[in-house]
Design brief:
Layout: E1 4-8, E2 32-38, E3 41-48, E4 55-59, H1 70-76, E5 81-85, H2 99-102, H3 105-118, E6 124-129, H4 131-140, E7 148-154, H5 162-173, H6 181-191, H7 200-210, E8 211-213, E9 219-221, H8 230-233, H9 241-245, E10 250-256, H10 264-273, E11 277-282, H11 294-304
Length: 305
């Protein structure tokens, strides 16, 4: 298969964001919330659509939750059974009992495999942002090699540069606290400015689904601060070049044009290492494109179909 680089130059306008003005044809698919037990972990899952439809798993980034995909999942649920888990230590899932081993790509991949088996899914499509992309690579190049048919790797590569990693560790490892939700929302918009231009509804939902209250009543982030230690406790899990080479699924790599996590040279190397891969650069985004515009969701539909 030819290696192709496509530059996506559409402008992402607020009116084109899909939160409230877009309805799917026929019955509107609503988000459903479910908790499943995987070993010692309680995993929260948001899912959309008909369970008999082809399965699409959307897995979030390091310090995020499955709610990041509400807009895309709502629209894609017309064609797919969309599953959006909260990784352990994030959102409404339980925190790790043994952070050293629980917060690792190996552990996340095992949980993902258990979720797939729980829903009795034989074949699936995978969309992974950042950490979710690493998990997808690990599975598609390993135990789920024959079951993952399409893999979207959103703004991550088999290796992460030291400067980008240091930036992530700095803001994830020391979550601040706030007296009010407006203060928390302003902070989120600043920290996640590389997410690009998004609607007010997007940022408000992000704030609502990203907060928890501490015992003193102040607001802080939704995740266990220990998650950041996976980079020190399990540093040998990266790079994943050998695993990436083994992927037989159709691969779409998406890169924010201003991303420091997936630099151009790593994206080019990914094309050379796997002939099934194509790369699409998304303008006006850093790390990472949010896929909450009609244009970007149409891009996903085209690839997944």
């Amino acid at each position: 298969m030819a290696r192709v680089i496509i530059h996506f130059i559409g402008v992402f306008l607020p009116r084109r964001h899909c939160w409230y003005h877009v309805k799917t044809e026929g019955e509107v698919m609503q988000r459903r919330s479910e908790y499943i037990q995987v070993a010692a972990h309680s995993i929260h899952i948001s899912h959309w659509g008909n369970p008999s439809s082809p399965a699409l798993i959307m897995w979030h980034g390091l310090a995020r939750t499955g709610r990041d995909f509400d807009g895309a999942a709502h629209i894609l649920s017309k064609d797919y059974f969309v599953i959006c888990p909260d990784t352990i230590g994030r959102g409404l899932s339980s925190w790790g009992q043994n952070p050293r081993t629980d917060y690792s790509l190996k552990s996340y991949a095992e949980i993902a495999e258990a979720i797939i088996d729980y829903y009795k899914i034989e074949k699936l499509r995978w969309f992974g942002t950042s950490m979710g992309g690493l998990i997808g690579m690990l599975l598609a190049g390993g135990v789920l090699n024959e079951r993952i048919t399409h893999l979207v790797i959103n703004d991550i590569g088999p290796e992460i540069g030291s400067d980008a990693l240091s930036r992530i560790i700095e803001y994830v490892g020391s979550p601040p606290s706030f007296a009010s939700m407006p203060e928390f929302k302003v902070w989120l918009e600043k920290i996640y400015a590389p997410f690009g231009e998004n609607s007010e509804e997007f940022w408000q939902l992000m704030a609502d689904s990203s907060m928890r209250r501490r015992s003193d009543g102040r607001i802080t982030t939704h995740y266990d601060p220990e998650i950041i230690n996976q980079f020190s406790h399990n540093a040998d899990e990266l790079p994943l070049w050998e695993v990436y080479q083994n992927i037989s699924a159709k691969i779409l790599i998406t890169r924010g044009s201003e991303s420091d996590v997936l630099p151009t040279n790593v994206g080019d190397k990914m094309l050379k290492y796997n002939d099934n891969a194509s790369l699409q650069e998304i303008k006006k985004f850093g790390h990472a494109p949010t896929f909450n515009s009609i244009e970007s969701i149409d891009l996903l539909r085209l690839f997944l179909n």
